Amino acid sequence: MAGTRRPVVTGWFTDDVPDSGFRLLGTRCTACASVFFPRVDDWCRNPRCPGGGELAGTPLSRRGTIWSYTDGRYRPPAPYVSDPDAPWEPYTLIAVELAAEAMVVLGQAAPGVRTADLAVGAEVELVPGVLNEDDEHTWTTWQWRPVGPSVEGGRA
What is the pLDDT of residues 66-85, one digit of tens each? Predict the structure, then answer.
């Protein structure tokens, strides 16, 4: 039985909120309007920034388009840590372009989403997900799920 919900990385996304309010959290430079994820709290990473601004927390778009995708069908080698006796579960990774923020964010696909269900340019939405569970915690993260009619064979 899983215990307390804990974000995998504190401050990168909202947690313990209904599905409709779940968001990735980035920062926006007030001097140049550049947006960063993961968040930046020390200085603007834009080399063309005129400086003098502040970095303010900002929620990112909940929807974007698939920029690229792939699947992980093998257990990564060391130094990746996993239980060698546990069966390996393939997973799908999706790189999502957030147009309003002019960036691409990587994340796992929601459970049940396969590469055959995806197509470059298709719309996806952000949903809360579970990375792992143990007796003490449910480790939460973000995932991407296709929007609209199902996609078959990688084509819309």
Answer: 999 999 888 877 767 677 78
Q: What is the 3-state secondary structure (H, E, C) of the chain?
A: CCCEEEECCCCCECCCCCHHHCCEEEEEECCCCCEECCCCCCCCCCCCCCCCCCEEEEECCCEEEEEEEEEECCCCCCCCCCCCCCCCCCEEEEEEEEHHHCEEEEEEECCCCCHHHCCCCCEEEEEEEEEEECCCEEEEEEEEEECCCCCECCEC
**C-beta neighbour count of 17 within 10 angstroms:** 11
- What the block records as the tokens of 156 is 């819309």
Q: Locate tokens 């078959």: which residue? A: 152
Alpha-carbon distance of 110 to 94, in angstroms, equals 10
| pTM value surpassing 0.85 | no
Closest C-alpha to 42, from 33, 55, 30, 53: 55
